[in-house]
UniProtKB/TrEMBL annotation, chain A:
Start and end residues of each Ferrous iron transporter FeoA-like domain: 1-73
Organism name: Parageobacillus caldoxylosilyticus NBRC 107762
Name recorded for this polypeptide: Ferrous iron transport protein A
Gene3D superfamilies the UniProt entry points to: 2.30.30.90
Lineage, broadest ranks: Bacteria, Bacillati, Bacillota, Bacilli, Bacillales
Gene from which the chain derives: feoA
GO molecular function: transition metal ion binding
Keywords: Iron
Entry annotated with the keyword rRNA-binding: no
TrEMBL record, chain B:
Entry keywords, A to Z: Cell inner membrane, Cell membrane, GTP-binding, Ion transport, Iron, Iron transport, Magnesium, Membrane, Metal-binding, Nucleotide-binding, Transmembrane, Transmembrane helix, Transport
Species in which this protein is naturally found: Parageobacillus caldoxylosilyticus NBRC 107762
Keyword Coiled coil assigned: no
NCBIfam families from the UniProt entry: feoB
Protein's UniProt name: Ferrous iron transport protein B
Membrane topology classification: Multi-pass membrane protein
Name of the gene: feoB
Amino acid sequence: MVLTDLRQGQKAVITNLAITNEVVKQRLLHMGMHEGEKVCVKCVMPFGGPVMVEVDGQYICLRRKEAACIGVR
Amino acid sequence: MSSYIALFGNPNTGKTSLFNNLTGSYEYVGNWSGVTVEKKVGILRQHGVPIVDLPGIYSLQPLSRDEGVATDFLLTEPCSAIVNIVDASQLRRNLHLTVQLLEFGKPLIVALNMVDVAEKRGVKVDAEKLSRCIGAPVVPVIARTGKGTKELVRAILSLSEQSGEREHVAIDYGQDVEAAVQKISEQLPDDLLASKRWLALQFLEGNERIHAYLQTYMDIAPLVAVRDEAQQALGRPLAEHIYDARDKWIVHAIETSTVIFQQKPLTLTEKIDAVVTNKYLGLPIFLTFMYIMFMLTFDWLGSPLADLLDQFFSGPLTEWLSKLLTLVGASPFIQALVLDGIVSGVGGVLVFVPQIFILFFFISLLEDSGYMARVAMVMDRFMEAIGLNGKAFIPMIIGFGCNVPGVMAARTIEQPKERLLTILLLPFMSCSARLPVYALFAGTFFAKNQAIVVFSLYVLGIVVALGLAKLFSSTLLKNESSIFVIELPPYRMPQALTLWRSTWDKGKGFVRKAGTFIFGGSVAIWLLTYVGPKGIGVSMDDSFLAVIGGVLAPILAPLGFGTWQAGASLITGFLAKEVVVSTMNIIYHAKDMDLLQGAITQHFTPLSALSFMVFVLLYIPCLATVATIRKEAGSRKWTLISIGCALTIAYTISFLIYEGGKLFGY
Ligand SMILES: Nc1nc2c(ncn2[C@@H]2O[C@H](COP(=O)(O)OP(=O)(O)OP(=O)(O)O)[C@@H](O)[C@H]2O)c(=O)[nH]1
Ligand SMILES: [Mg+2]
């Protein structure tokens, strides 16, 4: 399963970060998105817009393209 | 050698708030990541120690231009001690930076900030225990109110008295990495400012800035070989391994030092977000906010206040001044200079101070509440379509106040292409200096629909900017993917004092400009109207200004304002856009707004007024903006392109409006 499969309010655990863009990946890592962390999808913007997730009390917004590369369980 | 005390910390942890408290200055504070984009120097109050505020960073590997400033500071400037601001409510993430700073080897103090926020979330940090764990002093503070700063100053001073390098806790990264660190350290030259262990670790982690830095001092190939070897031995990416080792150490430190007495989520932030970033309501709410802002600025509140001020300037103030001048026996020349030149020119701009302050108040509100980052999120999908990302919207909003800080704010955008694009489109954001021009012309010709007309001008600016962005991103600046990741801070109740200071700080610039630039400009313009090729005290139509403006008149004629007056005010408007109004006040000999409005109705029709406003909106970035673009884009070519685009677009659109309007019979 990937992050974009989660519905609003659903929680899961990150299993892998297969993001190809190095800058995006580094940013997410710095903000605390690591394998084994819990994520919760807070909201999804319309028309394929970005998603907002919560990790460890921190709200992060990323594009759906990248969210689709984040495996969760 | 004066050496600094440097403030380091993650973005949005309160570094600048603390800096302001320590130095008594007022630097830019806001509730989103990336407010500070340059190094700022101040002096520690009463102690004379220089102290530096830096942009926020997550790690010492810079991903954007502002972050580069912080890393470069470590590499190139002498600092005697580091104050690391740590957000107590986000300890784990923050301590990753702390570890790297500890490894750097300079004396370090942790300022444990936002303890109030942490406590509200049910987390209590024991500073004493944390200090023992990480081997550095920890001082709890609340940067917002200044609580704990006295203790922090004491700790800073006692730290800089201790001489020599300090014993610090070293994390053991395991045999393979430690061996590699050892090997690299042995090869590093001795005269580098930074500690060898730190350099070696950063290099192993893959910090590109360090890679480039070392390359200038030595042959890097052997180091790369060591890194590859270590990587082989580990069998997994080095960066990950190093991260995990640090994380383990950090988690242990947190477990020993913090008590979670209550697990409480961010309920308020969640509730607000449920509405504000709602799938369907997000965009309408933002637009409504903007609409209210414009109505208050131009209609409901701003205009009546501007009128009052205008009455004061043209009535009592002018009377007093002229009495005073007669009393001291000033010559008619001086009287004319003061009353027709300075009072008209400077006063004509100052009457708009209330409107400008209202606008700045709203921008400050956006900045301080935490809504700014949400706007970036709401706008991202749209911005993506034109080849930008939502983060570019933040500089654009700041640009509504003044384009110069807007251009600076583009530093936080990671991709060089997107950053350049954002810089290029910023001059089309209608800054507050253009507001007097709109207020004057819209007030004269479209009194009933003033707010709507002005609102459309702002929208036109945005549309042109975005259109241009689309054009560039699909032609000249292709081939680089657009990215967007942003951290959303919790909402914070804006404090009255902060709001006021932030509003005043922005508005001050406008008032100061009136006292310097516009004052000087007014004197110069008046003199140019007073002397001419034929002598002194000529009629205005024979003055030098008329000659200069007259050159442009025929070119501007197809736009509907082919008079030397319009030409002259547009030329002077390059200095600063509000000078357009000053110049008109002087040229048309207007003592107050009513007279000026009367005068311009004789020279403009509603249609040509609209065309003129559009032209002023778009025609050229002001002098200060051009200088900033030159510096930030680092290229003369792009600066010229920016000016060229502005002139062409302004001319074309004004032409279409005027000629098109005529066809429709206006
Ligand atoms: N509740 C609370 N808010 C704080 C505290 N310190 C700072 N803030 C708020 O946090 C926000 C960020 O403050 P800044 O001082 O701009 O943070 P910064 O670290 O300089 O941010 P960047 O320059 O973006 O890296 C502002 O809205 C402050 O009012 C604190 O101790 N408690
Ligand atoms: Mg700051």
